[in-house]
Design goal:
Elements: E1 20-32, E2 36-42, E3 47-53, H1 59-62, E4 70-79, E5 94-105, H2 122-127, H3 129-132, H4 136-158, E6 162-163, E7 180-183, E8 191-194, H5 199-207, E9 212-220, E10 233-242, H6 246-264, E11 276-278, H7 279-286, E12 300-301, H8 303-306, H9 312-317, E13 324-330, H10 336-348, E14 355-361, E15 368-371, H11 373-390, E16 397-403, H12 405-422, E17 433-437, E18 442-444, E19 450-452, H13 463-466, E20 478-483, E21 486-493, H14 498-507, H15 512-518, H16 520-526, E22 533-539, H17 540-547, H18 578-584
Parallel strand pairs: 3-5, 6-9, 11-17
Antiparallel strand pairs: 1-2, 1-4, 2-3, 4-5, 7-8, 9-10, 10-22, 12-13, 13-16, 14-15, 14-16, 17-20, 18-19, 20-21, 21-22
Helix pairs in contact: 4-6, 4-17, 5-16, 7-12, 15-16
C-alpha cells in the first residue's frame, strides 16, 4: 500500500466495501455524536466520511484532531445504512471505519473557516489566500479556470493554430495604459517594460511566416482597479492570423468562445446570432460600447419633438451645437413612483435629473393620456408622436436626457440597465454576444489634440486615402466582443504597410523619428514583406468570471492583488534594500519630494 494513500477522497464506493484502505487529506470538520466521532476528510478530489467509535484503536487520537489538520487515515470501507446515504457526495453510500490515524501536519487556530461559505472581509481572504482557496466555491472556480484554459488550447490546436511564447521583458510601448518598468542592472539608467500585451511580437510572428499563432499570454498594466479588472496582471487568449479580413477573424473566434460557454455553462443558452453593431450605434442605443443585450431597451434620439417646444430647458439646449435629446423607453414603467425613483437615480449620478412621461388611462375613462411634467409642457400632439416613435402604450413610460452626448451617455446607459432590471425586462441565465465594429481611429483630447482612440496598430478603413481627410472621420478595422455588459475581446486588422503606419502616427502627433524609436523592430520588419494580418485577444479572467457567475474578477484569480494593487499574502510591493538600489544605480525619493 502507498505510504500516504491507496485512494483519493472521491474514489470509494460500494464496490470497495470490506476493503482496507488508506486516505490522506484535510480534516474538513469533526462531529461528536456521543461516543461516535465523525470526520469529513477532504482532499483535492472530494470528501469521505470517517467514523470511529469507542472500540476503534484510533478513537483517542481522533478526539485530538481539529479542523484543517492534515491526517492520514487507515480503515475499512463500510456501506452506510440506507437512511444515512448522502446523495450529494460521490462517496455518500459508504464510510470508512478508522483503525488508525497519523497526523501529518497540525493547523493553528484558523483566522477564517474553510467549512461553509461564510462571507469574510476580502482583506482577510487575501492575506490567508491559501485557506480561502481550500473553500469549496473557490476550489471550483480555480478548477473551472484550469479546465477553461485547457479547452481553449485544445480548440485552438484543433483549428490549426500553433502556440508560441513571446518575451516577458521587453521595451515600453504605448498600449493605452501605464507600463510596469524594470530597471536594467547591465545598462544603468535604462529600463525594460513588462508587456501590456504581446501586440508587436505577434505581428512579427506573422511577418516571420507562421500564419496562425495563439498564446495564453500574461499581460501587465499599471491600471486603476475595478471589480472586472485586475490592477496589475491578467491573462488573455492572444490570436493572430495572416491573410485575413475582419470576417475571417469572427469566423474563427465565434466557435471557440461559443463552444466554451456551451461546454462550461450548459444550463444557460447561448444565442448563436452575434449581431454586428457599429460603435456609434452602440453608444446611441445602449449608452455603452459593451452593451448588455439581455436587456431589450434601445434608446432613441427624440430631439425633433422638443425643438421649439414648451419645455424651455430642452428647447434652449437644442439651440446649442452638438446637443441631443435621447429617450429611454421603459415598458411597464408607467407609475409616478417608479418615474420619481429613476429621476432620483439620475441625480445620484451627478445629473440635474431625468425628465419623464408615462401613459395611463384618462380619468374620464375616455382612453389613454400622457402624464408627467414634460407631457404638460410639450402638449398632447408631441407626446403622442414620442409614444408612437418609441412603440409604447398604456402602462409604459419614457425617460429623457439632454445635452452633448459625451456628458450624459454613460449615465443613460446605467439608467437603461437599472430600468431593465427593476422592470424585469432583462433576461436571466443566458449569454448574449455582440460584435462592436467601426471604432473611430482617432479622438480629440481635452486639450484639443488628435490622438488614437483605441489600438494604434489597426488598419484605417480606406487605407492611406482615409488619412488624407479629417482624422475624426476615419474608422478603423477595430472590433470588440461584448457579452452581458462586459468586453470579452478586442482586436483588429493590422496596419502592415510602413507608409500608412507613419501617416497614422503622424496625425496623432508622432513624427517618423519617434515611430522609428518606439517601434523600430516592427517598422523594420514591415519593410521586408509583411502579409495582411489581424487578430484579437480575449480576457481569460473575464470569461471565467462570467462562467462562474460572479461579478468580482478576484474570485477567479488564484492569487490576486487587492483593490490597492497590493499582494497581502506576499507583502508586495515591498521596499528595496540599499544594496539592490546601489546595484541598479537608483535612488528612491521621499513621498513629499
Amino acid at each position: 500500500m502507498h505510504a500516504y494513500r491507496s485512494h483519493t477522497c472521491a474514489a470509494l464506493n460500494t464496490a470497495h466495501v470490506g476493503e482496507t484502505i488508506r486516505l490522506s487529506g484535510w480534516v474538513h470538520r469533526v462531529r461528536d455524536h456521543g461516543g461516535v466521532l465523525f470526520i469529513d476528510l477532504r482532499d483535492h478530489y472530494g470528501i469521505t466520511q470517517i467514523l470511529a467509535d469507542s472500540d476503534s484503536p484510533a478513537f483517542a487520537d481522533i478526539e485530538k484532531v481539529r479542523a484543517e489538520w492534515v491526517v492520514q487515515v487507515e480503515g475499512r470501507v463500510k456501506a452506510r445504512n440506507a437512511a444515512l446515504i448522502n446523495p450529494k457526495l460521490p462517496t455518500g453510500e459508504i464510510e470508512v471505519y478508522a483503525t488508525g490515524i497519523t497526523v501529518l501536519g497540525e493547523a493553528a487556530e484558523l483566522p477564517m473557516p474553510v467549512f461553509g461559505e461564510t462571507e469574510y472581509p476580502e482583506e482577510t481572504r487575501l492575506t490567508y489566500r491559501f485557506l480561502d482557496l481550500r473553500r469549496d466555491g473557490m476550489h471550483r472556480n480555480m478548477m473551472l479556470r484550469s479546465n477553461v484554459v485547457r479547452s481553449i488550447r485544445n480548440r485552438m490546436w484543433d483549428m490549426g493554430f500553433n502556440e508560441f511564447q513571446t518575451p516577458i521583458i521587453t521595451a515600453s510601448s504605448p498600449e493605452g495604459a501605464r507600463d510596469f518598468l524594470v530597471p536594467s542592472r547591465l545598462h544603468p539608467g535604462k529600463f525594460y517594460a513588462l508587456p501590456q500585451a504581446p501586440q508587436q511580437f505577434k505581428q512579427l510572428i506573422m511577418v516571420a511566416g507562421f500564419d496562425r499563432y495563439f498564446q495564453i499570454a500574461p499581460c501587465f498594466r499599471d491600471e486603476d482597479p475595478r471589480a472586472d479588472r485586475s490592477p496589475t496582471d491578467f491573462y488573455q487568449l492572444d490570436i493572430e492570423m495572416s491573410f485575413v479580413e475582419q470576417e475571417d477573424v469572427f469566423a474563427v473566434v465565434q466557435p471557440v468562445i461559443q463552444g466554451l460557454f456551451q461546454e462550461f455553462a450548459p444550463e444557460k443558452p447561448v444565442d448563436s446570432n452575434w449581431p454586428r453593431i457599429a460603435y456609434r450605434d452602440s453608444l446611441l442605443w445602449y449608452g455603452s460600447d459593451k452593451p448588455d443585450l439581455r436587456n431589450p431597451i434601445k434608446m432613441q434620439i427624440v430631439s425633433d419633438h422638443f425643438a421649439g417646444s414648451g419645455f424651455a430647458v430642452f428647447a434652449k439646449l437644442l439651440e446649442q451645437e452638438g446637443t441631443q435629446i435621447r429617450a429611454i423607453p421603459a415598458p411597464k414603467g408607467g407609475s409616478r413612483k417608479f418615474c420619481d425613483r429613476m429621476n432620483a437615480f439620475a441625480q445620484q449620478q451627478g445629473l440635474p435629473g431625468m425628465g419623464y412621461i408615462f401613459w395611463r388611462e384618462a380619468e374620464d375613462k375616455s382612453g389613454m393620456e400622457a402624464a408627467g411634467p414634460l407631457a404638460k409642457n410639450i402638449g398632447p400632439e408631441r407626446t403622442e408622436a414620442i409614444r408612437q416613435q418609441l412603440g409604447l402604450g398604456l402602462g409604459d413610460a419614457a425617460f429623457f436626457l439632454g445635452g452633448k452626448p459625451d456628458a450624459f451617455e454613460s449615465v443613460a446607459g446605467r439608467a437603461r440597465n437599472v430600468i431593465g432590471e427593476e422592470l424585469g425586462l432583462t433576461e436571466k441565465d443566458t449569454f448574449r454576444f455582440a460584435w462592436i465594429v467601426d471604432f473611430p481611429m482617432y479622438e480629440k483630447t481635452d486639450d484639443g489634440k488628435i490622438d488614437f482612440s483605441h489600438n494604434p496598430f489597426s488598419m484605417p478603413q480606406g487605407g492611406m486615402d482615409a488619412l488624407l481627410g479629417d482624422p475624426l472621420d476615419v474608422y478603423a478595422y477595430q472590433y470588440d466582443l461584448a457579452c452581458n455588459g462586459y468586453e470579452l475581446l478586442s482586436g483588429g486588422i493590422r496596419n502592415h504597410k510602413p507608409e500608412i503606419m507613419f501617416k497614422a502616427f503622424e496625425l496623432a502627433g508622432y513624427p517618423n523619428s519617434e515611430v522609428e524609436k518606439r517601434f523600430g523592430g516592427m517598422v523594420k520588419a514591415f519593410k521586408y514583406g509583411a502579409p495582411p494580418h489581424g487578430g484579437c485577444a480575449a480576457g481569460i479572467d473575464r470569461i471565467v468570471m462570467l462562467l462562474a457567475d460572479t461579478t468580482n474578477i478576484r474570485e477567479v484569480i488564484m492569487f490576486p492583488m487587492n483593490q490597492r494593487a497590493e499582494d497581502l499574502l506576499m507583502n508586495a510591493p515591498s521596499d528595496p534594500t540599499n544594496d539592490q538600489l546601489r546595484e541598479l544605480r537608483l535612488r528612491v525619493l521621499p513621498k513629499d519630494a
